[in-house]
């Protein structure tokens, strides 16, 4: 396992993040207490220290399981970088039991701290934008939590790029803490963040944490082999285009002699230099397969094949920039055409 700095901070995190949405059986599926403990043990043994959860995962059971794991005398809490989230509705007690507002933020964090059995959260995410709360209120509340010592760093998930940009700019103006990381759905089957979210993250030096980097298991090829799993037949992950991309992943995997998941995860990691895929696991063999992906570095020819088969339309202004000669790190053509005429 290698480590990288989270965003522009000095926090060292493993190059894979363990997603724990499947910890607990409250929803009728997932890893039980013993299984979850084994997965966290194995992840730590491999050098993994970055764990992702949320107050809403399995109705709080995910956080509770992690809290019980931390309560073990043999567990070094400070070894782990623990990320959790707030925003989504987690109970029916009051109208403010959801959303990005300060009241829900403070209430949610106190609940998470109790379930996790810890005095601090390493990384707190705004889980999803509610399109109601002023971003100024959000940034002030998050900075207050950092000043109180209850949160070390902040991040944001599933939010429009312009909102994230406004939040970081406002925080910079006020001398408050800025978002260190951005979490979005990103995979070979979901490349739309390349239009504005990833360029925005790059501009602010944010780490990118893709969720569903294997597209809910579709990119492992298991659905093409007859495993129905929990995916719906009408899912976009099973349409003609997705099947074509998955077959390309499987073909490249056969040439390397690795699992298709290794190819899909390697592609994600190689798209952005601050990329840390979130890999979920409810079974030990799933975790082992995900860890094997760290041994693979795709060569340029295979990267090109995957880029071409999964290519999306950038839309305006991305495609306009390309037509005008603007390329990554090269604005000469654009300058010649627009400035010089």
TrEMBL record:
Gene3D superfamilies: NADP-dependent oxidoreductase domain. Keywords: Oxidoreductase. GO terms for cellular component: cytosol. The keyword DNA damage does not apply. GO terms for molecular function: oxidoreductase activity. It holds the Pfam family Aldo_ket_red. It comes from the Bacteria. Residues 16-309 form the NADP-dependent oxidoreductase domain. This is Aldo/keto reductase.
């Amino acid at each position: 396992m290698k480590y990288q700095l989270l965003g522009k901070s000095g926090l060292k995190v493993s190059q894979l993040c363990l997603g724990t949405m499947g910890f607990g059986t409250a929803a009728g599926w997932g890893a039980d207490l013993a299984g979850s403990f084994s997965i966290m043990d194995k992840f730590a043994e491999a050098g993994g220290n970055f764990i992702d959860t949320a107050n809403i995962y399995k109705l709080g059971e995910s956080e509770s399981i992690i809290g019980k794991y931390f309560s073990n005398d043999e567990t070094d809490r400070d070894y782990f970088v623990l990320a959790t989230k707030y925003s989504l509705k987690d109970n029916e007690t009051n109208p403010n039991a959801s959303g990005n507002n300060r009241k829900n933020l403070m209430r949610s964090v106190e609940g998470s701290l109790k379930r996790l059995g810890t005095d601090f959260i390493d990384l707190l995410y705004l889980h999803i934008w509610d399109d109601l709360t002023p971003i100024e209120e959000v940034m002030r509340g998050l900075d207050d939590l950092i000043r109180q010592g209850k949160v070390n760093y902040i991040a944001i998930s599933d939010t429009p790029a312009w909102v994230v940009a406004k939040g970081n700019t406002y925080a910079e103006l006020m001398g408050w803490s800025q978002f260190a990381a951005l979490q979005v759905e990103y995979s070979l089957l979901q490349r739309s963040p390349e239009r504005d979210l990833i360029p925005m993250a790059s501009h602010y030096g944010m780490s990118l944490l893709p969720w569903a980097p294997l597209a809910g298991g579709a990119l492992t090829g298991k659905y093409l082999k007859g495993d129905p799993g929990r995916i719906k037949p009408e899912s976009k992950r099973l349409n003609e285009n997705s099947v074509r991309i998955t077959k390309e992943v499987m073909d490249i995997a056969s040439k390397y002699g690795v699992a298709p998941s290794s190819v899909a995860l390697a592609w994600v990691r190689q798209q952005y230099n601050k990329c840390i895929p979130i890999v979920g696991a409810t079974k030990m063999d799933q975790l082992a397969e995900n860890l094997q992906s760290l041994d693979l570095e795709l060569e340029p020819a295979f990267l090109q094949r995957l880029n071409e088969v999964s290519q999306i339309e950038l839309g305006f202004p991305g495609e306009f920039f390309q037509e005008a000669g603007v390329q990554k790190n090269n604005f000469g053509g654009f300058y010649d055409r627009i400035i010089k005429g």
